[in-house]
Amino acid sequence: MVQLDDRRRADVFLLASVAVTVVLWVVPYGRLVGWPLMLISTLVHELGHGVAGVLVGGTFDSFEMWSNGSGVAHVLGYDGRFARAFVSAGGLCGPACAAAVGFAMARGEKRSRVTLLVAGALLALFELLFVRSLFGLVFVALLATVLVWLGSRAKAWVSQLALLFLSVQLALSVFSRGDYLFTDTAHTTAGVFPSDVANMAKALFLPYWFWGALCGGFSVLVLVVGVWSFLREGRKPKALPAAKKRAALAQ
Q: Does 87 fall in a domain?
């Protein structure tokens, strides 16, 4: 059996995660298997709205999501054109930002474990405070449980692979669901609403497709930085143990 060091293994995990995702898009029933992954991107999208709202002085009031992949975040208590645009952009850029953090943390096994544990604990707290739909309650609870188990009970390399796989899914959702960046309406189970880019256009200026392109470009830039940090760290030379370093200096 071929043994891979941490760097090589992380690179293999990255390529394998991308390959599995592509296969899910093209094989029969692959999209059904990928349904939970699509729900995760919805969850992170709506969390992005909530975090952005808190950053501009608002309150993340509640969250709802449904089995068709639609969701609504209710953010209150903020005002101003730029604040409204920022909250709308938070959802559009949230998956890319989360993916970039995941890539940055997925190089090491210990960091992967900690990241999964923290994410699972935060989701459990999020469910208690904000989730208000039955499907959302079930899904968030299951996801939080899986993340905590992966971070605490699974083998270290499984935790690393899981974090990297989730990061790849969030990264690719920027493209697989990119059509939402260029539509002026959002169809959800709760009804039809102006899309995030339409809200940005209303709050500021220029047409909605301009803001969609801007958010898309920003998301790609963030992903490039995240993947670059992942690959760059893997190319750093390993530090020699103290004993070997002294021996090398003695020579």
A: no
